[in-house]
Amino acid sequence: MKTRAITGLFFLIVMLASLLTGHYPFGAFYLLLALFCQYEFYGLIKKAGYFPNIYTGMFNGAFIYTVFALLAFHRTSPAAMFLIPVPLSFIFILELYKKTSTPFQNIAFTFLGLVFTIMPFTFFHAMAYMGTEFNFHIPLGFFVMLWSNDTGAYLTGRAFGRMKLFERHSPKKTVEGFVGGVLISGLAGYILSIYYPELHWSQWITMAVLISCFGTLGDLVESMFKRSINVKDSGGILPGHGGVLDRFDGLLIAAPIVYSYLYFVTN
């Protein structure tokens, strides 16, 4: 428990520093997190018996994230997106030189790593640029509500949990815990609206509901992957917490949904 607390506190400080020190540290830090998640996800796929092109996939992940990050703070032309298929083509080309009987699966799983881990982080990064300039309020609020949901769900489920939410993939999650998580996250959203009024309180609370619902689904999806290969953690880089993918699985489905919601309500 002590190791878990120390790791969590250190990681929290680093995350807050990346948010508060400007767009370059912010972009670089979440690129690293995205690549760690991608690497761990490919590790899970290898344990399932397939062989994604890990390093070509990660190079493409870094390239795609960087292109969208530069677009977000207006450092490149939208035409740069037309460069993305160039490195992607090497995923197919390099498969020619691998002695494997599963090229379809290897290529498909390499692309799945990009879609499941890299793209959600590009959406999360873009939340800091919903206005004309970098603003850390929405990304910070996203994590506050995500963590509030996790904490609320854990405490409520432990105290009142009876009905299983999705026992096949996560036996400990309960309906009561899920409802408690949504309520605590909604309360956090309302408090955030007081300090960060660029979004209306109803928009913050809507974000909280979306984060709670789709963050829980992200957690369940990762649990599904891990249970299919009898693995508890995606990695061990965070002592007491498992892997980076284990800590950010809630972001993977929630971030694209929340960004899409904000895009339409702020435009």
Automatic annotation (TrEMBL):
Keywords assigned by UniProt, alphabetized: Cell membrane, Lipid biosynthesis, Lipid metabolism, Membrane, Nucleotidyltransferase, Phospholipid biosynthesis, Phospholipid metabolism, Transferase, Transmembrane, Transmembrane helix
Residues in the signal sequence: none
InterPro entries: PC_trans (IPR000374)
GO molecular function: phosphatidate cytidylyltransferase activity
Keyword Cell membrane: yes
Catalyzed reactions: a 1,2-diacyl-sn-glycero-3-phosphate + CTP + H(+) = a CDP-1,2-diacyl-sn-glycerol + diphosphate
Protein topology in the membrane: Multi-pass membrane protein
Subcellular location as annotated: Cell membrane
A Gene Ontology biological process term: CDP-diacylglycerol biosynthetic process
Record-listed E.C. numbers: 2.7.7.41
Pathway annotation: Phospholipid metabolism; CDP-diacylglycerol biosynthesis; CDP-diacylglycerol from sn-glycerol 3-phosphate: step 3/3; Lipid metabolism
Transmembrane segments: 27-45, 54-73, 79-97, 109-130, 136-156, 177-195
GO cellular component: plasma membrane
Family, as annotated: Belongs to the CDS family.
Name the record gives this protein: Phosphatidate cytidylyltransferase
Organism of derivation: Mucilaginibacter myungsuensis
